[in-house]
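Researcher: Good morning. I'm working through a list of sequences from a screen, and I'd like to move beyond sequence-only analysis. For each chain I'm collecting a predicted structure so we can compare shapes side by side. This is the next one on the list. No need for commentary yet; just the structure.
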Amino acid sequence: MSEQKTTRDEAAAEQDAGTAPEKRSPGTDVELSRKSVTSLNGDYGITSIADVVVAKIAGIAAREIDGVYDLGGTTQRAVGKVRDVLPGTGTSVTQGIDVEVGERQAAVDVAIVAEYGVAIHQLAGAIRRNVINAIEQMTGLEVTEVNVTVHDVHVDGEDAARDDSEPRVQ
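Model: Good morning. Structure tokens for this chain:
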């Protein structure tokens, strides 16, 4: 695999230098754009991207995928429910998202609750693709990894059954 990477990197360097003709085959546009280096440091200054920016992008991208019921572990979801009730606050877009952002790369951890009946391995793959595409397109950072942790599976009617039951203590 390292030989392939070296060959691709050399080809990209030749293209940048103008010595090699541009070769594109169907389906490689995403791969080519992923390997392109976007400099956040320019002649007139430096661009810094805060962790919270990348976390918001990842949170929105993860929520866009069908089959994701909610983001976060049990504690994060409980805090999110309290936030929903308090006036002037709302659900945090970064709930269930943890990121590490460097100068050129980012790594993302996503914690989810999946809907029952969804193929979890396919769901995780779709989340990874969407998060990687969103972050790389919006920030120019290379995403090195997207780790998906499934904390629970949501079953329709599960929440309603809990809310309608009488309290155990008075």
